[in-house]
Write a sequence for this structure.
């Protein structure tokens, strides 16, 4: 499984589905935002070791997921990144849903929407081929 670092500080990553925790632990990731259906079975259950946020969403060109929940998750992710935690946003293939949330986190960290889209596409070739997700990041509601 390959992880894609999307920030400059090595604290924000996207990936496809998690197959085993060892590959995640290598990066000292302690927060996982899971956007695909089905809970990851390999997440550590040791107390105080991993924050696991489960919010399955569809990769749908017709409508966006619940925007207020997406923005709340992005604020949480950005806060954790600012505090030095390492955050992974992941979905089934690591292209759209994970990039949508990682893009919102980048925006919360001060990056413009257009720059966030460009950064995600640079760091994860093929990312954000869902035009609705990309357009939303480029012009998020205030």
């Amino acid at each position: 499984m390959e992880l894609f670092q999307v920030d400059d500080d090595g604290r924000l990553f996207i990936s496809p589905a998690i197959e085993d925790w060892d590959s995640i632990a290598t990066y000292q990731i302690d927060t996982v935002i899971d956007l695909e259906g089905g809970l990851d079975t390999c997440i550590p259950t040791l107390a105080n070791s991993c924050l696991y946020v489960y919010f399955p969403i569809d990769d749908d060109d017709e409508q966006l997921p619940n925007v207020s929940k997406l923005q709340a998750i992005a604020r949480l992710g950005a806060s954790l990144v600012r505090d030095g935690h390492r955050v992974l946003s992941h979905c089934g293939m690591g292209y759209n849903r994970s990039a949508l949330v990682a893009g919102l986190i980048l925006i919360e960290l001060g990056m413009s929407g257009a720059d966030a889209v460009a950064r995600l596409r640079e760091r994860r070739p093929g990312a954000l081929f869902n035009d609705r997700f990309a357009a939303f990041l480029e012009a998020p509601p205030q």
Notes: The mean pLDDT is 94. The helical segments are 21-25, 67-82, 97-108, 113-123, 131-138. The beta strands are 4-5, 12-15, 31-34, 51-54, 87-90. The longest helix spans residues 67-82.
